[in-house]
User: What shape does this take?
Amino acid sequence: MEYELYYHAANPGRGEFIRLPLEEAQADYVDVAREPGGTDKMMRFIQDASVAQPQFAPPFLRHGEVIVGQTANILLYLGTRLGLAPEDEAGRLWAHQLQLGIADLVQAIQHTHHPVAHGLYYDDQKPEALTFTEHFFEDRVPKFLGYFERVLGGRPHMVGQRLSYVDTSIFFLLDGLRFAFPKRMQKIEGNYPGLGALHSRVAARPNIAAYLASPRHMAFNDRGVFRRYPELDG
Amino acid sequence: MEYELYYHAANPGRGEFIRLPLEEAQADYVDVAREPGGTDKMMRFIQDASVAQPQFAPPFLRHGEVIVGQTANILLYLGTRLGLAPEDEAGRLWAHQLQLGIADLVQAIQHTHHPVAHGLYYDDQKPEALTFTEHFFEDRVPKFLGYFERVLGGRPHMVGQRLSYVDTSIFFLLDGLRFAFPKRMQKIEGNYPGLGALHSRVAARPNIAAYLASPRHMAFNDRGVFRRYPELDG
Assistant: This one.
């Protein structure tokens, strides 16, 4: 296998931002933690003190001798290699900047159900989760989605004239928000028609459609970044 | 001026991660928002719909025709240009990965005083801030600082054999944590002797020392990411 993706086997999570471009490009990759013994292999990079570039957390990617961690950084590395990012430096950095914005939003989405502490159960931080989510949809979601809609500016792609990993990331972001907050999203999606149309176009791409229908694709559940708690859905 | 840095004039904030490498390298730069009319100039990039690459938020950097946003992305762009990052791709991505980890920690530090909503006053989210900060120092701070100490591994620099922007970022991170949480940090800093020594070495570099003593350097205050609220200091 050319690429080894290391991410938790339990949910699509941030790993999905990496899987989508790999699938779109029909890259030769393995989802390590979903293979026998894969989780142990993944933990070695996190816990083994003798590793030269210790990893803080999944996802990370191995490509020959190169190891790259942090979702957006992995996409920066893969983008031009998979033909899913501009070739020129300014274009590459612009795509990366947008991906970092998506990462900021994803981080905030994590806080909708875990605003107090990663290490506590959702049930132990439910009142704070309700308060955070309310403000999040009042202030942050319109600011972020409005920004991405403005960047798209009625064009078919987020960056340049061709599909890039920023498009597949917007697809997954919307997918996750629709799963986690179906009622809230139905109310506001009309404000972001370009993003909705982009989501449909990405879903209809043959390699993406085949992936979504395959056993490689995991459904959302109650363990990932995107979780459906009806009481948070307003 | 070769480089134009756009960041709020009111506090050192995330802009300081950019200023430090610019100062270390004696780069020709201007801190736009601190010049007359600068804040208006900055807001144009955020609010003007006709801008080709609209910016979500400061900091961003202008270098000729290139505009780069997101703190870590700016450092990725500046790193090799200022001689403060490895030249090879794998080394550049490793430095960037560490900077993204620092950004994650900075984001969490913002949550210590604003866990519920950016848009609310600290006084309106004080109980949540206390709870968040308690868990933050119990779980996240040891995990992050322990990780950075492990990456340093007793060497003089975070990345490779020379000073990089990751070193100046660790300097500023520790500086900010010491300002915001003097008592908590005094208790735990002994666990991270390498990071403490790195902080001292960066502070002693002639260009950094000259900058810190200059009027260009802003002190921490009660408006930035790093804020001193004694009740959060345990």
